[in-house]
Amino acid sequence: MSAVFLRRATAADARAVADVWLRSFTAALPSVVRPHSDEEVRAYFSEVVLPSQETWVADSAGRVVGLMVLDGDQLAQVYLDPEWRGRGVGDRFVGLAKRRRPEGLSLWTFQVDEPAHRFYARHGFVAAESTGGGGNEEREPDVRYVWRPGHG
Predict the structure, then answer these.
(1) How far is CA 76 from CA 1, 61, 65, 86, in A?
(2) Residue 96 vs residues 69, 70, 74, 101, 130: alpha-carbon distances, Å
(3) Contact (Cβ atoms closer than 8 angstroms) between residue 21 and residue 77
(4) Could you report the average pLDDT of every consecutive run of 10 residues in the chain (152 residues)?
(5) Threshold 0.85, pTM exceeds
(6) With contact defined as beta carbons under 8 Å apart, do 35 and 137 qualify?
(7) What is the DSSP letter of 23?
(8) DSSP count for the chain of H helices, then E strands
(9) Whole-number Å distance between alpha carbons of 72 and 52
(10) 3-state secondary structure (DSSP) of residue 122
């Protein structure tokens, strides 16, 4: 297996980033209904996320296998190609996010995503708020997690 390195995403990565997101979301959240088509997701990453948010990719031999997006102090997205879960890439992304935002981070995850809850708790994030999903497009109940320095 090739080494994985983390690097800033470029405009040329937009489709590969969106495709990782699509595969990961489908595998990890089968019960959550996506409100946008694949092409709308690809356009969103190309036209909104990569140009305006701090986007990182995990690159293995020139192939994007994961993504992380920081938007202000929010860890907006961490998604891995399903075959790359459990290999430490997510841990590396969270470590990078903490170095990039040493004052603290927050994030949202769906309540049904128990593996994400365990993952973020292991990295020192604490559940701070739960909602019925009124604030997200999926209308799926969610949880906001926060991390502050000195807490993991």
Answers:
(1) 28, 26, 17, 20
(2) 11, 10, 13, 9, 26
(3) yes
(4) 89 97 91 92 96 97 96 95 91 97 96 94 96 90 94 58
(5) yes
(6) yes
(7) H
(8) 5, 7
(9) 11
(10) helix
